[in-house]
Amino acid sequence: MIKRILVAIDGSPPTHMVIRTALEEARCHGAELHIVHVIESKWTESEGMSELAIRDLEEEAASLLSSMKAEAEAQGSEATLHLLRGHPGDRIVDCAIDIRADMVVVGSLGKSHVKRMIAGSVSTFVVTHCPITTVVVKPGA
After folding, report:
1. Is 68 within 8 Å of 19 (Cβ atoms)?
2. Neighbour tally for 72: CB within 10 Å
3. Helix (H, G, I), strand (E, B) or coil at 86
4. What is the pLDDT of residues 67-106, one digit of tens each?
5. Cα–Cα distance, 111 to 86 (Å, whole number)
């Protein structure tokens, strides 16, 4: 039985599709919805990154989460928000385990093989490392 769903968002173009998928799953199962956004640590730990720039990142992330919560509420669902810092894949997996999620929903940007090798893929990391059923929403799906 699915009681708790964690959806990871990053503000990329597929974000609304990812949220809609998670909302549908939550409605179908009568599950709680948790929305997580991770501020990647490489941005906040960079040399020369000012406190003002870090605050801007945090405000942008909080705004994104708030807009996704509003989207969930417009669809008649409640959502719990999680704003985390660190490696996105690690933090998503940790959050899923911490909240005892029964399902994780992530998006895929559809990067080329070369771009995935260079930049990595959060969705691939989560699928590979998360012990919880993970749904990957692909662009155009």
Report:
1. yes
2. 22
3. strand
4. 999 999 999 999 999 999 999 999 999 999 999 999 999 9
5. 22
In this prediction the pTM is 0.87
- Contact in structure between 89 and 129 (CB atoms under 8 Å): yes
Residue 6, class by beta-carbon neighbours within 10 Å (0-12 exposed, 13-18 middle, 19+ buried)?
Answer: buried
Closest CA to 17 of 133, 129, 107: 107
- The number of angstroms, rounded, from the C-alpha of 131 to the middle of its chain's C-alpha atoms is 16
Helix (H, G, I), strand (E, B) or coil at 116: helix
Polymer length in residues for the chain: 141
103 and 18 Cβ atoms separated by less than 8 Å: no
Instruction: Work out whether the CA dihedral 29, 34, 35, 40 comes out positive or negative.
Output: negative
Closest C-alpha among 94, 87, 123 to residue 108 = 123
> Residue 3: what residue type?
K
Domains of the chain plus CATH, in order, are 4-137 (3.40.50.620)
The pLDDT of residue 57: 86
